[in-house]
Queue: 3 jobs
Job 1
Amino acid sequence: MYLKIGDVGWSIEDTGFGNRFQLWAAAYELNKFNNFKFTILVEDEMWGELKFLDFPYTETSTDRFHNLDYSSTIDLRTNWLKTLDENKNYYLLSPDLFEKWPPYEIETSFWDKLADKIVLKDKKLDSKIKGLVKDRIGIHIRHWPMPDQPNNFYFPTEDEIERFDYKTKMKRVKSELKKFEKEGPHKFYISSDCTYDEPGKGPLLPNFSLKHQWLSEIYDEFDVIDYRDILESDNEMQKFVGHYEVRDNNNSNWIKDLNIDGEGRIKVSRVYPDKNSNVNIFYDDLNGDLYKLKLKRDVVDLFSLIYSKELIESFKTGPFSSWTDYVLSYRDNICQE
């Protein structure tokens, strides 16, 4: 039988991994309380990280997720840690991200102790990340929020920087890096979603070292690597670059002529009818494969911060992030082992 959980925090622009993990951790704890008699069920599209990460006692299926017959719901903000009927399926309700978070009463928090339950499936990639970042300081630089984001816990008023005040933002980031430079040259690993684009609207695979990127100043001044140094050596970053003709998913008689650049941007140059074309690639399939690489980028970033010798948290360079919170918990757990 199943414990079904939702996709709180997820969007195509921001995967909300840290928030979704907290919900998964509650399901894991409830499953543990019931002697692991259930399987945690998540939707494939919103939990794409499961292609690369092993979540114990967890299954991903879009069909089963939407068609599951369940008779009981569980509100994690009530008395939820209890014995369940092992012949029933249950749905764990997802609270509103800003208004009712975390998804359970804060004094019962336990999810930080479960962070290291999740491991990389690809042990070769795991070893590669460890080798590249073992002597580097990880830094998480989160995109500054839009002005209308409402939660003072995630975005404290005193941390606010004007949306387009990139000079002050950069000053804050560099000041954190230079604290380490006082002791001599240091090496860094950057995990970030910061571009000049609106938060969540930037390219899927940004090359932060290029001059048109805001973070390129960091690359000019410090010894820095990022996810590209891990993925590019396997030629994963370049396999999508180039010209394509693809069928439109809504009307397969129409062909899209497009190009994908080195940062994963798709530019459609024209759309034309050709029902007799031998084109056998569909736009959504191509875009889905590109997004899968973006998810792999996220996973590489996550474990690079986990395995770095030290960590500069997101709230030291900008807004608080549940991503940083997850990394801190994981690092604490493996240090105690």
Note: DSSP finds eight helices and 14 strands in the chain.
Job 2
Amino acid sequence: MHGGSAAARLDSIRMEWMLQVIDEIDDAIGALRLASLGFAAEIGLVAAGGLGIGAIGAAFAAGAQYSLISTSSILLCAAAGLKYRGSQFHPNR
């Protein structure tokens, strides 16, 4: 038997209301989870950038080759530029 028979049908306003409330709570939790993951990713990018700048400074202080230092600086600037450009592009807004 599938839902076609009259005995298998259940109409309950309270059950429908409860399912709607649970669905809204689930949507709110999902939105908070996505926001927290986005925030954690931003913090991770800042930490990675800080470590990259620190590594360049340490390499400079240790007397590393200028070509390696300039290459890593260019890569760090390129990554920052791509991040900035990506934050400016919001197709859904």
Note: The radius of gyration is 26 Å.
Job 3
Amino acid sequence: MKLKSRLFLALCIFCLKSELRAQAPINLNVGVLLPFYSDTTSSLSQKQISQAALDYYAGLRIAAEDLNKWNVSINLRVWDLQKMSDSALILLPKSAEFQSLDIFFGPITQKPVDLISTNLQKTDFLWVSPLTNLKLPKIVQNVNFFGHDSLRIKGLVHQLKLTYPEHTFCLIVDKKNQSLVKYYRKELKKAKIAYTEHFVSGNKVSPRITTKTESLILLNVGTSSFSRLAQFSNVSRKVDSYIVGDFNWFDDLSAAEEIDETKIIYPSMNFISGLDSSALRFTETFIKTERAEPSKFGFQAYDQLTFLGGLFASHGRLDLNDLPNARYNGLINTFELKKSHTRTFINQGIRLIKNEKIELAPVEEDETTK
């Protein structure tokens, strides 16, 4: 980030924090419904989900402590999905605690959503699907922080157009893995980005890329990170040309001596910079309180609650329609919320990772949110 951009961002954050400290305290009731419980008889899958939920909750607690310093008081109310029957979920909306909520985080599967939705009485709260893409009831304002693949692709194409508006685009496709190609074609067309389409197989790209432009983007879909070798000669000697990897590349990052990593862009939903002082401070706090390293779920929870708490504090209400057309960069995620229905918002924020040292490993992935 350029110095001017850093100074501007720091000034904005300083002004926001100063404003929040000066005003009267704000109270937010935040509910959390996640599958926390597991024991020695639980399956490996359930233990992993349970640990993810605990890490997420720990991230919420740290965010609540930080927001409290800015005169935003968070009252956390927690329900363990593992200990609730279907009938208990149906009755949950009638409880006094639920009816006092401003924000509701959870669950992570569709069935509990449907059970709770059948008996909703209070609708003036924000329902958040924090870790998976769920169909939330449209009678309440709701947000999915992790959307369908098509939305991630939409966010990626949007970000590439903003960052590289004058570049020539080539779509690089794996013939054996074309399930998502239609989404790329659709979004490139909507963004009015002209492109040529090429297939990669082994060490060959066909048809050959013959453009002589110095500003080239090779946008990959369905390819493996090993295909970088076949593509690299097309960008290696061009001053402002890059290979944009498939979403799975960053999760399977491996060094290759023949590749100049400064010419590769890795799109990712989850990325933590090892140089981010705020991320380091969060890690230190998490280790101190939890006696363990934070997983990606702790970072995600921190970003989500900090983002929403800041919105409430600055506008006096939790209405996502008040959001400016802007991007919010958290510790691990970027939020760029887009309306898909009158009261439904979906995040399509993507991070373009470039010029990072190869030893900065990706946040670990598991089956919980795939």
Note: Residues 87 and 115 are 8 Å apart (CA to CA).
